[in-house]
Amino acid sequence: MKYQDIITQIDNKVFQPVYFLMGEETYYIDKISDYISKTILNPEEKEFNQTTLYGKDIDVATIVSEAKQFPFGSEYRVVIIKEAQEIRSIDKLDSYLNHPSPSTILVICYKYKKIDKRKKFGKELSKKTILFESKKLYDNQVPSWIKNYVKELEFSIDDKSCRILTEYLGSNLSKISNELNKLVLNLQKGDRITPKDIEDNIGISKDYNIFELQNALGIKDILKSNRIIKHFSENPKSHPFVLTVSSLFSYFQKIMIYHNLKDKSKNNAASALGVNPFFVSAYQIASKNYSMSKLFKIFTYLKEYDLKSKGINNPSTNESELLKELTFKILH
Questions:
Q1: pLDDT digits (tens, 9 = 90+) for 170-206
Q2: Where does the pLDDT of residue 235 fall: very low under 50, low under 70, confident under 90, or very high at 90 and above?
Q3: For residue 86, what are the domain limits?
Q4: Whole-number pLDDT of residue 207
Q5: Domain of 259: which CATH number?
Q6: Three-class secondary structure of residue 123 per DSSP
Q7: Which residues have CB under 8 Å from 65's CB, separation 6+?
Q8: What is the pLDDT of residues 271-290, one digit of tens each?
Q9: CA–CA distances in Å: residue 108 to residues 10, 123, 234, 266, 297
Q10: Last residue of some domain: 150, 180, 201?
Q11: Domain stops at, among 175, 201, 227
Q12: Number of domains present in the structure of the chain
């Protein structure tokens, strides 16, 4: 079942005895469990009928014992299990799934991984619970997610700002949503979020970020590239060397993909690269500046300097100097 379907059911007071929420992306697991926690019981009912337990402190027998208790002065009892992935032998819960208490709403938050639905317990979950799998988004899906989230907050955001946030915050939806929630506190409803807003409220420089470094390298702007890596070197906590190398690898990989496309039309290229069509022209320009043979050399450099940053074949050069060397080799 999808996230919105679960929320709609709860709004319509259609409750299920067991919700098993699992997956690598914790954002929706937290959203659903928090919504159930806040919605089903009123404040007076919660005092006696809602409990939250943590996996590291309990076992399956504790869950079953809590779930089988009858509500007091309420139609339902809500039992929320956080960090359920810490529970040993959670598959022993299958006996409760066969005869769940109709007056208990049991919510199990199984984060960072998932139960194999091909095995017996996984099959039981699929049949006898509301089984929700929260999958991690691919990087190319994140900008679209940001746009939709910002729209729900009654704001808008430009493509460049989406790209900056994606490059800086990755695909961690909880982190992205937290940063956006803080950002919009300083804006008026209906405002459009810009790179300057991001710089002022989140601290990601609109001029000195990995996105701007990629653009500068793509057009072989030596002066701008060196200015950006100087900023990176002076702010290593905000721009870790390992993340910079990873982002550059992804960037040059996309240029190589563009080289190999037979159909280089904007929409087809955008689909193949996993980017907004708005950014395709930048990869087109970069492909003219970096031949396939040069790209192969760049991948060798990236691997070499990643290893050097970890102390391999590098007795003393610091990350600041490594970044300067790497950028020089990419550009020349």
A1: 888 999 999 999 999 989 999 999 989 998 888 888 8
A2: confident
A3: 3-133
A4: 85
A5: 1.20.272.10
A6: helix
A7: none
A8: 898 888 888 999 999 999 99
A9: 16, 16, 45, 45, 49
A10: 201
A11: 201
A12: 3
